[in-house]
Amino acid sequence: MKTDSLTFLLGFLCLSVFSPLQCEPKASIPEEKLLVLTVATKETDGFKRFMRSARQFNYTVKVLGRGEKWTGGDYMSAPGGGQKVRLLKSAMDIMKEEDKIILFVDSYDVIFSSGPKELLKKFQQTGHKVVFSAETLIWPDRHLEDKHPHVREGKRFLGAGGIPGFIGYAQNIKEMVSNWSGQDDDSDQLFYTKLYINPEKRKSLNITLDSKCRLFQNLYGALDEVVLKFENGRVRARNVLYDTLPVIVHGNGPTKESEYPGVVIGIFIQQPTPFLTVFFERLLSLQYPKNRLKLFIYNQESHHEQHVYAFLFLLNHEAEYQGVKIIGPLKNDNALKILIELNKPFIAPMMSKPGRLWSNFWGALSADGYYARSEDYVDIVQGRRVGIWNVPYVSQVYLLRADILRNELKGPDLFQSATLDSDMAFCSKVRDQPCPDVYWFPVFTNVACEHLIEEMENFGQWSGGGNVDTRIQGGYENVPTIDIHMNQISFEREWHKFLLEYVAPVTEKMFPGYYTKFGIKPDEQPSLRPHHDASTFTINIALNQVGTDFQGGGCRFLRYDCSIKSQRKGWALMHPGRLTHYHEGLPTTEGVRYISVSFVDP
């Protein structure tokens, strides 16, 4: 018996060795065989993000239903999405290539994290003809739970929300949707679920689920499973529960159990107010989920402090609300004095919650401009590192110099952004560099500025502002200004010495050289049309004070869409001339603005 068993085993091994063709891996699917189908009746921001992601990884995408009216329901009041099945069925009916691999996904809340090669390899490894995304939650009919086949490990239910993503051979998918006869607002999810839980259909179509999220990652109900993996300059979503790197990430479904929209209620108590406690009682009686409400309470009346804190803390309602912000006195009575003594244009005290790592600042930003924990964040919040830190984001409370808001930060859109909250937009604009390769530095005292203006006004022979100018070589000024040249007041030699001794040491770090000098008086010529300076770089010195001597003015660099509007008196503004810094002079709306300009060439 033992000899026979040994002979059989050796015979089997020899068969494996001498029959290599039976052991070769199956040929990989060519990437050109893959076609991505999606439905998008409108080009939303989510759709544009999806298409950028597809282009990044070289997917071929065909969009179905573009320009059609959406009649597939809203997925919130009732299940819907049947219109997507109808569009897919129509597309498959006219498709000739049966050996195509079809990936059908949503486009409004889906991104790719890797390319077709990895997707096709993982699909082929399943050994099935159609693979659906999977979830731990069942939707829309919970009564079908027992009919779902059990899985040894992983997610058991067919993926929900928007489109249940799936990939498969064109022939199988065509057969799968051929039986669709529902209405546009019927549930696509229920249609696919019934196909999957039917043993005969599941076997004939060769359907399986991506239970371990190797291909698809649905985020609904699975946020705790997913982290971002940073490696070799790339970022991937990683499922830590199954240790997999999904190729497609689907941000489906709400992240909270409640589907009510969030509401912010702002309460401002700026004077003694009768019946405040009655108001709070009525606020509590609102028929709305408390965890979908945010309260912003501003109280500047000490008389009402007891009422506010009784409402929020003694009645223990703070935990019921999604967020509560109270703006009032800091616990440190000397906080304002300390902040002012530090003499910073923008500074914030650190605020944190006892025993927690929450604070009113971010230590770092991620690549997309949102929160990232800095290396020393915990040490700072817990008080192990004490000092003044440069941080990218603060909120809740901060101290600014008033002149900063009047000048550098006076824009009406300071708190506005298409993609950021108001406080994040504010901090982003404070961080942003105003213009690339434009520098300013102090060179003149107030007395020097005033003396130079007096000399020019005493001479009084301002140019006419036309193109014909006999003072320059060639006699033609391409961008005419109303000005006086330094050599007209016999000040050229002194100005030359000033440039060499005071400006050159600074400019040599960026640009070498020097050339023409003149003063400009823009009260008669309040602005300059867009132009390039005929220089290697330009020095522009403000001789009087914006907001005091004049209003408006400044310089706008068109290529970079940025402006310098509040140049300080006695400070030099330096920027490249030819080629890169195409610019224009902004209108002076009131008063007289004096600047001294030097066009510098090697």
TrEMBL record:
UniProt keywords, alphabetically: Dioxygenase, Glycoprotein, Iron, Membrane, Metal-binding, Oxidoreductase, Signal
PROSITE patterns: FE2OG_OXY (PS51471), LYS_HYDROXYLASE (PS01325)
Membrane topology: Peripheral membrane protein
Membrane-crossing residue ranges in chain numbering: none
Cofactor: Fe(2+); L-ascorbate
Protein origin, superkingdom: Eukaryota
Pfam families registered for this protein in UniProt: 2OG-FeII_Oxy, GT_PLOD, OGFOD2-like
Residue intervals of the Fe2OG dioxygenase domain: 506-602
Molecular function terms from GO: iron ion binding; L-ascorbic acid binding; procollagen-lysine 5-dioxygenase activity
GO cellular component: rough endoplasmic reticulum membrane
Statement: the UniProt record of this protein carries the keyword Iron: yes
Signal peptide: 1-23
Subcellular location field: Rough endoplasmic reticulum membrane
Gene3D superfamilies, sorted: q2cbj1_9rhob like domain
Keyword Manganese among UniProt keywords: no
Protein name: Procollagen-lysine,2-oxoglutarate 5-dioxygenase 1
